[in-house]
C-alpha cells in the first residue's frame, strides 16, 4: 500500500455519514468499525502507514495493548493480520523499587494466558488499514484546511480542494489535534517536568514474557519485551537529562543504561533511541456541534502504565456502538443527545485513569520520607495479597 495508490480519491464534493480525520490506531479502528456496519465513511490522513517488511527494525513507538482492546481488535478482524506480522505477548507484570523486592502480577491469577501484548504502533495501524473496505473513501495524503457547521451537517474543506459534507466528523488526529482547534474546543493540562527516552535494545535472552517497571526517585525505568531477543526500554528522567541521553551514540547510551537500570535488564545493547515529551491534556468538551473527539485528540495521559491507546480504543468502541445503533434506527449519528451520552461515559473514565496515573507519578516519583514509607507499604501489601494482585491484574487487562 503506497501513498500514491491511496491518494487522489478526491471527488470535488462528497456527502457521507461520518468523516474520520486522522487514521492512526484510534481513527483507523473507528473508520473500520463504522464502514463494516454499512455507514458511508470518509477517512482523511496525512500519511499512510508503510508496508510491513519482516526484516525491518521494530518501530520505536510501541504500546502495551490490554485484553479489552485485543478483544475489540479481534472482532474488527485486525488482530489476526497483526499476529502474522509481529507482536509479543507478556504473562507477567512486575513493579518494584528495590530489585530484591519485586511484586509480580501473573496472568494465571486471573486465569488468562497473558496480561497483554507489546505491539508496534505502525504495525497495528497497518493491520487496521489493511481491513478498510474499498467502499471507504480515503483522502491520503491530505488534511483539513477549513471546518464549517450548519444545524444538520459539518463541512470540511481539504488541502486537496475536496469538500466533505458529513452528519458527524470524528477528530482522531492526535494530541495536537488541528480539528479540535478548528472546532473551538479548548483544553487543560500541563507538560510534565520529566520526559522519557525510548530505546530499542538487543537483550542476551532468546525471548522474554515479562514487562517490568522500577520506580526510582528520579523517575521510573521500564522494560517491555519484543519478539525474540529484542526489547524496548522506557527511561523517565528530567527533560534536560533525557535530551542529553538521546544525543548519545548507541554505544554510549548502552553504557549509561547498564549503569542506571537494574540487573534484570541483562547485558543489553542499544540499537536506536528517541525521546518524547510528556503531557497531560484533557479537552474541555468532547464535542462541539457535529465534531467529536476520540483518542489522543480528547486526552493525553502520562504513559507510565501504558494506557493511552487503550483508553482511545475504549472511546472508539463506545462511540462506534452509539453511532451504529443510531444508524440502524435511522437516527442522526451527530445528534447532541448521542454525543453527550458518549461524553458522559468516557470523560469521567478517562479522567479517573489520568488522575490515578498522576497519583502513582507523585507517590513513586520522589524521595520525600513519608511518601517513601507509604509506597513501601503499598508494595508490601500488594506483594502479600493475592486478592489485591488479582484486582490489579484485572485492572491492567482492562476488564475492571
Ligand atoms: C513514550 C510513549 C509510550 C506510550 N506507551 C503506550 C502504551 O504502552 N500503551 C498505550 O495504550 N499507550 C501508550 N502510549 C500512548 C499512545 O501512543 C497514544 O495514546 C496513541 O498513539 C494515540 O493514538 P491516536 O490514534 O489517538 O493518535 P495518534 O497516534 O497521534 O494518531 C493521529 C493520526 O492522525 C494523523 N493526523 C494528525 N494531524 C492530522 C491532520 N491535520 N490531518 C490528517 N491527519 C492527521 C497522524 O498522521 C496520525 O496518523 C504511549 C505514548 C508515548 C509518548
Automatic annotation (TrEMBL):
Signal peptide: none
Cofactor: FAD
GO molecular function terms noted in the UniProt entry: 3-demethoxyubiquinol 3-hydroxylase activity; FAD binding
Origin: domain of life: Bacteria
Domain FAD-binding stretches: 16-349
Keywords: FAD, Flavoprotein, Monooxygenase, Oxidoreductase
GO terms for biological process, alphabetical: ubiquinone biosynthetic process
Gene3D superfamilies in the record: FAD/NAD(P)-binding domain
InterPro entries tied to this protein: FAD-bd (IPR002938), FAD/NAD-bd_sf (IPR036188), UbiH/COQ6 (IPR010971), UbiH/COQ6_monooxygenase (IPR051205)
Pfam families xrefs: FAD_binding_3
Pathway in which the depicted protein is active: Cofactor biosynthesis; ubiquinone biosynthesis
Stored PANTHER family: 3-DEMETHOXYUBIQUINOL 3-HYDROXYLASE, UBIQUINONE BIOSYNTHESIS MONOOXYGENASE COQ6, MITOCHONDRIAL
Family as reported in the entry's similarity comment: Belongs to the UbiH/COQ6 family.
Subunit structure: Component of the Ubi complex metabolon, which regroups five ubiquinone biosynthesis proteins (UbiE, UbiF, UbiG, UbiH and UbiI) and two accessory factors (UbiK and the lipid-binding protein UbiJ).
NCBIfam families named in the record: Ubi-OHases
Protein's name in the database: 2-octaprenyl-3-methyl-6-methoxy-1,4-benzoquinol hydroxylase
Species the sequence originates in: Arsukibacterium ikkense
Protein encoded by which gene: ubiF
